[in-house]
Amino acid sequence: METFNRKNHWENIYQTKASNETSWYQQTPQTSLDYLSACNIPTSAKIIDIGGGDSLLVDYLLDLGYKDITVLDISAKAIDRAKQRLADRADKVKWIVADIAYFMPTESYDFWHDRAAFHFLTDEDDITSYVETVKENINPDGILVIGTFSEQGPKKCSGIEIKQYSETSLVNPFNVYFDKINCQIVDHRTPSDSIQNFVFCSFQKKKS
């Protein structure tokens, strides 16, 4: 049986689909921007967008005056797209091509954002690795925001299995190290006009 290659899968997706043909496309990443505002993240904050790919969130962060932005994605093609879109502004962003399950940061962050990357980790070891990476690489009092498919959302995305979450099951892996701030259910309308149900939660790192 052939082993599934996660990186090859995503490179193929971005090779064969335009940005606005992907189900996760958002012209305005409003929920993410709302969390940024609600958590009073200063423009000096070190921000990382996990699975950011060619998401437009980075454009909005630059427009808002954020100066220390990192975008991580498993797909080099996705990041190349974002760089081309941003043109000269791409030099203001740090770009990392990596599988989040094996990511070893070289710096710590004040705001860790993940919309629809965490739910692709279905192996318990990968989930544990992710949680440990977050714990070790978010600064004291730092903020974590994660959005995943809810239990009423899709069971697959882009042809592969995902892990659905409720508010409780999303909070559980992180609550040893983080305090929950807020969770909400959000409907995302895809470019094909279907609805995907997400659960978003924000957390603050516990004081040691």
TrEMBL record:
It comes from Sphingobacterium ginsenosidimutans. Keywords: Methyltransferase, Transferase. Signal peptide: none annotated. Residues 47-142 form the Methyltransferase domain. The keyword Transferase applies. This is Class I SAM-dependent methyltransferase. The keyword Oxidoreductase does not apply. GO terms for biological process: methylation. It comes from the Bacteria. InterPro entries: Methyltransf_25, SAM-dependent_MTases_sf. SUPFAM superfamilies: S-adenosyl-L-methionine-dependent methyltransferases. GO terms for molecular function: methyltransferase activity.
